[in-house]
């Protein structure tokens, strides 16, 4: 539903609940809502409402829940909301544009169970009066600009299950009183300026399942008892003064007893030597890269140790509130939006729909894969945003969209050379995944929608949501995760068997679709006939011609001139390569190293046979080929 909420809604005097959430309502919240004296529930969340939160809402003496989150509301939180203490149980104002401090009267809501004012621009310190929320189960104040220390009065909130204060400007120690939070299951204090040690008393929180203390200034030993046995390095990353068990990837804690200076020297001198050697190694690496520009184009780069920090609020502003006008596309686990960061950089924001089964796993998998691999033809991750109810990846924006868009849109017309360049880009990226990384990676879902094109029409392989690592010497693993129908190898679809040979099969189908402009699921393929068989027939039957299967725009004329014959021979060679990738048996398929070499040979021959050759070789499209 669109448009404004009508003022006349205040005439529904006997209304008990008003649910208008998750529409496209705009304008302001009408003050006439304050006349709904019997109202117990008001949900206007997930719209495009603007303006202030009207103080007339404070007249709703029977209101039990108030949901205004995910709008564009501005101004301050009305202090009079504290007057709803006898009735209010749930207050959600997250993902708005609210400013100023949190009013002290809010802490008078002594029967409140759920409080969420995250992802706004709230400032100021947290009041000690937060301890008045005696029965609260969930408090989310993350992604604001709150400052000062964490109140110790949070400790006695024994019913508290979820607490998130992430991405603020809080400082000082983690209160030792937190060991009283015996019901706590989630604690997120990441991305603040917290200092001091992690209280060992937190080992008493036996129900704690999710802990994030990353990106602070904590120091000392990471506790090992209780729930800390189940936490991993990502819970503590970017606290450089911490020490702990080897599995956490922190240095071991040293003995605190004083040592003579000569004993300290045996640690200091090797450390200095190590630093010198490290600097020298990096310098040699940089000089070598400068001297080998051509090689560096396809080589991997040093991994980024620190991503740019981007908050949920910044993503909200960058995408105009995830406006549908910014929507680039939707997939199995969420949607992708175009955004512009505060410094003017265009990005693609992939938001995972956490209501969908597997979305958490898909987010974690993409973070794991994209943070560890680097190649010029793989999509680059800029940052990620991970919160309790929001997870997104921030990726390089690709102005020319996906290969799917370019193949089937009337606004694009890709010639043979452009399509060949794109397939070579994809092939070298997959070759790197299979053979150029320490552990083989299987993408599992190669298809035109996952091939993205930048300004120069250079292709980048994207979407690693179901990718698999072949570790421990395995060349094949079994999974229940299914890829896209039409592109997955037979052994994958029937038995869930995953190997790099499955990617080769998908690449072969991708090549066929790119040059025929026919989807493997096209309605023309019925019975025993499929895209692969259709291509095979065009190459082996005496009365069949490659002209009948490839995209007609690639062979603009039926005239048997030299250029037509050159193009036809090139397309025939490409289709034979695609069929070699799509052999029914995995053992009979070529690998990606062979596919890359063959594609490059086909391209070189195509260019050499061109007339006039010089004109082709000097074109920008040809110069992109190394």
TrEMBL record:
Keywords: ATP-binding, Cell membrane, Glycoprotein, Kinase, Leucine-rich repeat, Membrane, Nucleotide-binding, Phosphoprotein, Receptor, Repeat, Serine/threonine-protein kinase, Signal, Transferase, Transmembrane, Transmembrane helix
Residues that bind ATP: 350
Transmembrane domains' residue ranges: none
Domain of life: Eukaryota
Domain called Protein kinase: residue spans: 322-607
GO CC field: plasma membrane
Catalytic activity: L-seryl-[protein] + ATP = O-phospho-L-seryl-[protein] + ADP + H(+); L-threonyl-[protein] + ATP = O-phospho-L-threonyl-[protein] + ADP + H(+)
Pfam families reported for this sequence: LRR_1, LRR_8, PK_Tyr_Ser-Thr
InterPro entries from the UniProt entry: Kinase-like_dom_sf, Leu-rich_rpt, Leu-rich_rpt_typical-subtyp, LRR_dom_sf, Plant_receptor-like_S/T_kinase, Prot_kinase_dom, Protein_kinase_ATP_BS, Ser-Thr/Tyr_kinase_cat_dom
Localization annotation: Cell membrane
SMART domains for this protein: LRR_TYP (SM00369), S_TKc (SM00220)
Keyword field contains Plastid: no
Membrane topology according to the record: Single-pass membrane protein
Enzyme Commission (EC) number: 2.7.11.1
Primary subcellular site in the record, as a coarse category: membrane
Keyword Transcription: no
GO molecular function: ATP binding; protein serine/threonine kinase activity
Database matches in PROSITE patterns: PROTEIN_KINASE_ATP (PS00107), PROTEIN_KINASE_DOM (PS50011), PROTEIN_KINASE_ST (PS00108)
Sequence similarity: Belongs to the RLP family.
Protein name: non-specific serine/threonine protein kinase
Phylogenetic classification of the source organism: Eukaryota, Viridiplantae, Streptophyta, Embryophyta, Tracheophyta
